Sequence to fold (743 residues):
Amino acid sequence: MKPNLLAGIPEHHARFTQLPNEEGHNAVWDFVRSPDGRFYVSVCGENEKPLTALLYEYYPTTGDLRLMFDVANIWIVDPAQMPPSKIHTSIDFMPDGRLIMATHNTAPAPGHRQWMFEQHYEHPWEGYPGSILMLVNPDTNEVQIKGIPVPRESIYGGMLGNDPRYYYFLGYMRGHFYRIDLETNEVKDYGKVSEFSSCRLVKDAKGRFYGSSYTGSFWRYDPENDEIEDLKIRFHPPSGTKHRRQFIFALHTPRDTLLLVGNMDGEIIELHPETLEVTRHGSILPSDVPSVNGYGIGGFAADENFVIYYGLKTHDEYRPIRLVRWDLLRGGKPENLGLITWGGKDSQYICEMIFDDNGLLHMVDVCGQFSPYILAVDVDKLQPPGEETPNAALTPYYESDYNGVGSAAFMHIAAREVSTLPLHRHMDWKDTAVKHMSAINGKLYTVGGKESVMLTESEFAGDCPLQIKTIYHGGAPLSCLSIEENKAAVLTTDHRILLIDLTKGSWEETIVPLENGLIKLHAVLEEGKLLASDREGFLFVCAGNDFSRLGPIQVDPRDGYIVQLDNDRLLLSGRNDEIIMYSINDQRIETLTVKAASIRGRMFQATITGGAVLSDGTVVAGTRDGLLFSLTPDLRDRTVYGRLYSNGELRDFIRMDNDEVLGIYGGDKEAGHVFHFSGKHGFVDLGRPRMIKDNRELNALPSEFGNIHHISRLAYGKEDDCLHVGSAELYGCVIRYRGIAFP
Fold:
């Protein structure tokens, strides 16, 4: 039988329920059924309007709705800030019958031309304060506010543990996995588990959590040992797409396995939790529904016989999303049941679908001309539409382009060529945070490791290191320092200093006297001596096995930096905004007449956290408060260039050539940027290290996704004009830029 791919679901087998959208709410991203059979639906706003989320109870028998609350009425929403516009894949059920959920945001502040969550991440007035966690009594509508678990972060999916004291959730911006203790309010951050947004969690029969990265790599969290395990299992999109590959829906099968499906160009895999065996069931695309371009899945549900249903969205020409049936466990094939449309009210996407006790399938439409609405369908009466079936009455709808600012809103570092080195694919996640990088003769060398010292070697074009080598087993890198072009000094957690030849992978070892408690390497002095500091900031000169205390000076032990003027003179912060120069040979301290750049009333934040000396002797330095300044070669005059953002230090300065410097803005909380300084161009923000291919400027690049929030180190290869940016986080990577384009 030849199918009619333009036929719709017969309307006499369906019921249409319009969800409230008078104020512009156009989406639903949480539609759930409670253990006692009640249905709840969150109505959301996104894209262009500053709206707050609504929660309704939905009655599946009649299609009626009951408003439970509007977030605007239970939480103070500052009209200048981005609002809590969604409740997104985070509703779960407490043992006492209450609902637990969190807000999410994809709507702009009233004064914004578009949703700019990254551009205003740290903005005190126009940013997103952070998602709120709520406990809701469905019988009284009483809402208990637990507060903002992670400031500035938007919660993008959450689930209660088998131990109901703990609620687990994912962060949109940073891609971290978190847990909150609902009794003590303590929040634990387990670190980065995704490039950025990935919203779905599922538990197996033993209460272990499964999630995936944005690029479809699976991880598991076991509450018993309180650890995350990288499963080294990935979706393999049949078309080979590099679009959204994250795990988006899951079902528990009758044979105690998990059916998992990816977001775009999805395949369905079956995971056996005890053996971690994977059965690949193939593409969600029926054989008679061809698609040259990407296709997505919307909703995922199984009937009482475990026949699965889902929405299929293709992007070759105008088509609403269609309903597909697949008797997968009994060897069937995907079947097209028709387009999801009602009297021309085409559905662009289905966010969730749920069966009720009477066998009706309730599907929630989002992001279309008539969104959101619920279509309840008697699927037992549906058959694949044949050639004689009439076409649906389609009303073509194309979503507006809400990118009101255009390229001016792009934040990525622009370059002639960009490539990502996803270390997390090839190493244990715990070892992927980069502690040191060196670019040597067109190759990149990284040093890292959680419990040992690991060395990698890679080339620009490859997404896999040429070599991964554990060079020392006794301890992990604590502080690293380049000492020659191809050599690095590494201070380890077991009180050793290793002198590593990066190109050969060999090393020499020095034992540090335990009483010194050294924590940081600062500089290389004459005759290869090393300058280091201890936990209190006192300085030591290390020459082989000889360690001598250096005068009465101290460096801030948290993030203080020492600018090495030459083999004798050191420049560092004194008290508040004072700058001192120390002569090693004369053992003399001189306080400069000029001060470090500071913000009035916050001179105590003027600690020098990074710096470099240009070829003419000009000193360029940055502070904990994010101010950049320069000193003339005679150290008598100062020029202040300002700051990049409202918070965050300037650090890890590296020389690009004689008169140009690159550096990092931000610590572990800020969204890191790379900056450039030269006398000619001043202080320039180059952007954030992110390879998010949903961005129209980047989606054609062959490289893999990458997104670094907390930057660890920079390395620059002059011979091939390549900047390397390393991640300081779990699930680490390096993003490489050849031929940077300066804004």
